[in-house]
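A reminder before we start the practical. When you read a complex entry, don't treat the lines as separate problems. The point of joint prediction is that each chain is placed relative to the others, so the output describes one connected object in space. Small molecules and nucleic acid strands, if listed, are placed in the same frame. In the example below there are two entries. Take a minute to note the order of the lines before looking further.
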Amino acid sequence: MLELYHAEPIANSVKVLICLKEKNLEFISHYVNLLRFEQHEPAYLAINPDGVVPTLVHDGNVITESSIINEYLDEAFPEPALKPANALERARMRIWTKYVDDYFGPAVSRIGWHFLLHPLASRLTAEERRLRLSRVPLRDRREKWATVAGASFTPEQLAEAREQIAEGVRRMESLLKNRLWIAGSEFSLADIASYCVIPSLPRLTPDLMSDLTTPRICAWLRAATQRAGVRAALAMPNRIPETLSALGLV
Amino acid sequence: MLELYHAEPIANSVKVLICLKEKNLEFISHYVNLLRFEQHEPAYLAINPDGVVPTLVHDGNVITESSIINEYLDEAFPEPALKPANALERARMRIWTKYVDDYFGPAVSRIGWHFLLHPLASRLTAEERRLRLSRVPLRDRREKWATVAGASFTPEQLAEAREQIAEGVRRMESLLKNRLWIAGSEFSLADIASYCVIPSLPRLTPDLMSDLTTPRICAWLRAATQRAGVRAALAMPNRIPETLSALGLV
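Here is the predicted structure of the whole assembly.
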């Protein structure tokens, strides 16, 4: 039995949702409402002490870290394969996925947190803020929450994130020069990793992506979004609008 | 044909050297002298534009990132296997390796840079410093070099790194409670990843590791160090003492 603890079909949650849907795997969905800080509640920390989503539970075994979950799913349920058959292409797949995890993704996330979470977190009272922050297990996450609960990122930090996104966009456009998908001729975990970041760019950094300047990324995004697995993942509930409304933020 | 660009048998270089030696693979060794900043020279940047070691070249194909290189070597040369046969244990192997890459290793590295590279980098003239820094391609690396070329890390930053090392030591001691090696009953890439950090702890943070407080890590280190592959990797040249001496630093 497969169970997935996840948030909306964006960021690291959509990464694992796409993998599950591409493989037509049945799973029990446990929705975690990040805007209500459910990821830091004791019930969730008992499953994932790091207090981040997603978390996979397979027959009682807990697996964390979205990129590792996807490698696991592809090994435990090999059909259809989401890793290239060739070892060199698999290495390319992992190099790109690590780049998205370590550089490209965090840069997009910084802009996203600024626009989405700063308005939410900066409204907390001093007491709520202290309580919320005390429950965040990972130090770097706690610092990120403290930042958006305060004055948020500086203009310099946001500019730096934009530069990193521009670099990621340049690299991806260049990778797609000679191939349809990122690691080779087949859709792979590297494309799924990119789907965590690329769809939000037209909204967060509209000047960095267009059919004129990044035609290959735009074509890649259209092709990826047409896949049945991706569409099924995107159809999972998105409660951000209703939560923001309930919190009086929109 | 395999070629490896690497530094001394420590940190990320020893990670790939152990993997190659455990598999008895022949390779051409290209030594990169980090203390002479050879990793930022145009000749090396033409091979690895990130300016970090190690880099593997297999039949002309460049593969970067030590953990990804090791996964590649294990797939391209499967015998003897360095990944557990079981998918769940492989996931555990990758979760620990990622933790070492993202948290444990960087904390050890901060203390190591402070003691080894700060005395070196802080002696550079303003002009040399500007030139050296301008050649470091990765922003986070450039900032790290700027830090050790200046006043180095603050006491708070060093204390924070020590706390993170203590946390890594606690986690590893706990992982070894029910098993001989980190991912299960066999020596794996997760043990190799740990070998980047653990051997330097008795020197860098002697109070955090001892037969009394961390008996399992100490037993693990002895068992790992007795392996033929690990011994062969450790026998690779270490030119740090002679380079420091040539630079007038010892």
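Discuss with your neighbour: Chain B touches chain A at residues 58, 61, 63-65, 68-69, 71-72, 75-76, 87-88, 90-91, 94-95, 98, 102, 139, 160, 164 (CB under 8 Å). What might explain this?
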